[in-house]
Amino acid sequence: MKFTIRKANPEDLDVVASLFDAYRVFYRQESNYEKGKAFLKERFLNSESDIFLVFVDDKAVGFVQLYKLFHYIKLEKQWLLSDLFVHPDYRGHGLSVALIDRSKQWCEETSACGLMLETEKTNDIGNRLYPRCDFKYDGLHNYYHWWR
């Protein structure tokens, strides 16, 4: 399957918001296109994340969203691979791997030490994908959340 990947910009907001909404539904969230679009618009306007889109036949079919973090041991910038999604109709063609590879390239371009991510234990697709892409499982840490 022929595809291209490029960095998203504010003019891509509608297409990114549509994919983002589908991504959230995948994670059992209620569809809320408008709120998701406003969330992404704020990320674009404040330069708070970097998003890459994958296109097949000029149609955006997936994305990855990265947030800048800082690694306290390496004392360097790193990227949080926060969101990765490929439309179900386009899965199985290496597009997720291509988005991850582009994210690794972004680390090189931005002099970051690497990528980190978190996924649900029940995400069978991701839990098979990430080790294939040379991510190492960190079984030493527990991740906790505090919500306001």
What does this structure look like?
- This protein is of the alpha+beta class and 148 residues long.
- The chain has a single domain, classed as Gcn5-related N-acetyltransferase (GNAT) (Aminopeptidase, 3-Layer(aba) Sandwich).
- It is built from four helices and five strands.
- It has a five-stranded mixed sheet with strand order 1-2-3-4-5, sandwiched between helices.
- Helix 1 crosses helix 2 (33-45).
- The radius of gyration is 15 Å and the shape is globular.
- One of its GO terms (molecular function) is acyltransferase activity, transferring groups other than amino-acyl groups.
- Pfam families: Acetyltransf_1 (PF00583).
- Keywords: Ribonucleoprotein, Ribosomal protein.
Which helices and strands appear, and what pairs or packs with what?
Elements: E1 4-7, H1 13-26, H2 33-45, E2 50-56, E3 59-71, E4 76-86, H3 95-109, E5 115-116, H4 124-132
Parallel strand pairs: 4-5
Antiparallel strand pairs: 1-2, 2-3, 3-4
Helix pairs in contact: 1-2
CATH architecture: 3-Layer(aba) Sandwich
Which residues form runs of ≥5 with pLDDT under 50? none
Shape: globular
Q: Write the element-wise H/E pattern from the N-terminal end onward.
A: EHHEEEHEH
What value does the Rg take, in angstroms? 15 Å
Q: What is the CATH level 1 assignment? A: Alpha Beta
Number of strands: 5
How much of the polypeptide forms β-strand, as a percent range? 25-35%
CATH topology grouping: Aminopeptidase
What's the average pLDDT?
Answer: 93
Secondary structure: helix percent: 25-40%
Strand order of the largest sheet: 1-2-3-4-5
Number of helices: 4
Count of separate structural domains: 1
- Major sheet characteristics: 5 strands, mixed
Helix-and-strand structural type: alpha+beta
